[in-house]
Amino acid sequence: MMRRRTTLLTSCTALALALGATACGGGPVTAGGGDKALSGQTVTVAGVWSGSEQKNFQKVLDAFTAKTGAKTQFVSTGDNVSTVVGSKIEGGNAPDVVMVPQVGVLQQFAKKGWLKPLSPTAEQTVDADFAPVWKKYGSVGGTLYGLYFKAAHKSTVWYSPGALAQAGVKPPKTYDEMLKAGHTVSDSGLAAFAVAGQDGWTLTDWFENIYLSQAGPEKYDALAAHKLKWTDASVVRALTTLGKLFKDKQLIAGGQKEALNTDFPSSVEKVFGPKPEAGMVYEGDFVAGVAHDQFQKTIGKDANFFPFPAVGGGTAPVVSGGDAAVVLKDGKNAKAGMKLLEYLTTPEAAAVWAKAGGFLSPNKKLDLAAYGDDVTRATAKSLVGAGDSVRFDMSDQAPAAFGGTKGAGEWKLLQDFLRDPSDPKGTAAELEAAAAKAYQD
User: Fold this and answer.
1) How far apart are CA 321 and CA 396, in angstroms?
2) Terminal alpha carbon distance of the chain
3) Which pLDDT score is estimated for 34?
4) Beta strand 97-100 with 319-328: parallel, antiparallel or unpaired?
5) Cα separation, 116 vs 56, whole angstroms
6) Residues 376 and 305 in one domain
7) Of 45-54, 138-147, 192-201, which gets the smallest average pLDDT?
8) What is the pLDDT of residues 70-93, one digit of tens each?
9) Residues whose CB falls within 8 Å of the CB of residue 391, separated by 6 or more in sequence, listed in order
10) If 0-12 CB within 10 Å is exposed, 13-18 middle and 19+ buried, where does residue 67 land?
11) pLDDT-derived band of residue 35, with 50, 70 and 90 as boundaries?
12) Where in the sequence is the signal peptide annotated (predicted)?
């Protein structure tokens, strides 16, 4: 269930850029050869992607084939990667490579002994070309198992330039300025924000950005690992900050009740659809895909973003998500699978999907010119430029029972808080009770 949100959303993000699938640079890729050394071999890759995401990833796989001669076969797992992959391993039909959507699932696979450590070649490239934080999230017990090939930037606030211009406000630099600008937008005739409260995961993203900026990365890491209790004063403070937005009827389109009946695509429609109700919507870079594909908005002109602003004197947050490539020990062609991972570490591989759209790479060596539009370039620059201050989506690090289940855990409790934000301390206590149970199980 947790993964479904990313699958459905990021599959919306391929901005129809109809560009070719050839890798930039033109030179031979050392990872995986370039001399057709893998001719006659087939690499099986499993992942959650479908639709445009699967088509664009296939372009990357085709580029690998052109370099190495190896054929590839992509198997879509649907939402529950761990269950599907586990059953394939038990049935003696393990894929060679899996694109893993959550840190928690990667850790689960490693602890079950399913994964091969990345080759020295791949690890050297990760050390040289990726911020250390990506190696940290791909490692378990000090061993690197996962390569983060595709990332999401979840600290972007999307807005209608026309709505902000009509209100006479500019993109804010702080959270307080954002709420003040929201009131000005509201005074001009539109609500400030469309909030997708029907999808509990969007509320976790609101909380995570506020918490990371306000409490700082050390406490964020501790809370993500449940080494810090949710009853901590820093959590109550972040909930109080979030509650100021939730209870302000001027700021939320339709108020709390309507927000609880608004899913993510509908929240984007309230800003960029034919009958706008709000000037801004907070969510990740994938908002651009929905605005472009469903409402024919030109990104950069009709839809733009500003970074999620700094909260309470803290640093502006950069929260991310992503998909990590891992190699299974039981795959029939794990050796060729590792060659695919070595290829995926290269900027050439990332450039293939970057040109197609709907993609961000954490690879510092990828030329920003590979992206098809200025807004995506700006988003990618922000993600890569954040370096080691990037933090992975907290709910994706948690057990699914707490951080990724509809109608339960953090999703439900933050929906209850949106409905009635009057008791941040009580909500923190409920979050701690749910977290304690989930991390024990």
Assistant:
1) 8
2) 18
3) 55
4) antiparallel
5) 26
6) no
7) 45-54
8) 999 999 998 778 889 999 999 999
9) 133, 208, 212, 217, 220, 221, 224, 317, 318, 319, 320
10) buried
11) low
12) 1-23
- Residue whose token pair is 């995570």: 208
Rounded distance between C-alpha atoms, residue 279 and residue 76, angstroms = 37
Residue 423 confidence (pLDDT): 98
Here the CATH number for the domain that contains residue 191 is: 3.40.190.10
Nearest to 340 by CA among 171, 159, 119, 137: 119
Structure-token pair, residue 144: 């690197």
Task: Read off the tokens for 331.
Answer: 């795959």
Give which of 324, 330, 325, 323 is closest to 95, Cα–Cα.
330
Residue 183, classified by CB atoms within 10 Å of its CB into exposed (0-12), middle (13-18) or buried (19+), is middle
Whole-number Cα distances in Å, 266 to 3, 131, 277: 19, 35, 11
Contact present, 183 and 391 (Cβ < 8 Å)? no
Distance CA 312, CA 310 (A): 7
- How many angstroms separate the CA atoms of 385 and 255, rounded? 36
Domain that holds residue 190: 158-317+407-440
Q: Are 120 and 128 in contact (CB under 8 A)?
A: no
Residue 98, strand partner residues? 46, 326
Q: Are 69 and 37 in contact (CB under 8 A)?
A: yes
Closest C-alpha among 208, 238, 262, 201 to residue 402: 201
336 with 432, same domain: the answer is: no
Residues 309-363 have pLDDT tens digits of 999 999 999 999 999 999 999 999 999 999 999 999 999 999 999 998 889 999 9
Q: Per the domain annotation, does 176 fall within a domain?
A: yes
Statement to judge: residues 146 and 220 lie in one domain: no
Give strand ranges (E) for 86-202: 97-100, 115-116, 139-140, 143-144, 147-153, 156-159, 191-194
366-378: average pLDDT: 94
pLDDT at 263 over 60: yes
- Strand 156-159 vs strand 278-282: parallel, antiparallel, or unpaired? antiparallel
CA-CA-CA-CA dihedral for 440, 206, 376, 274, to nearest 10: 130
* Ramachandran angles phi, psi of 281, nearest 5°: -140, 130
Q: Within this chain, do residues 273 and 337 fall inside the same structural domain, yes or no?
A: no
| 264-318 confidence digits (pLDDT tens) | 999 999 999 999 999 999 999 989 989 988 999 999 999 999 999 999 999 999 9
* DSSP three-state, residue 254: coil
Question: Across the strands, what pairs with 305?
Answer: 158
**Cβ contacts of 91 within 8 Å, gap of 6 or more:** none
Residue 306, number of CB atoms within 10 A of its CB:
18
State the pLDDT at residue 390: 94
Q: In DSSP terms, which residues pair with 360 in a beta bridge?
A: 151
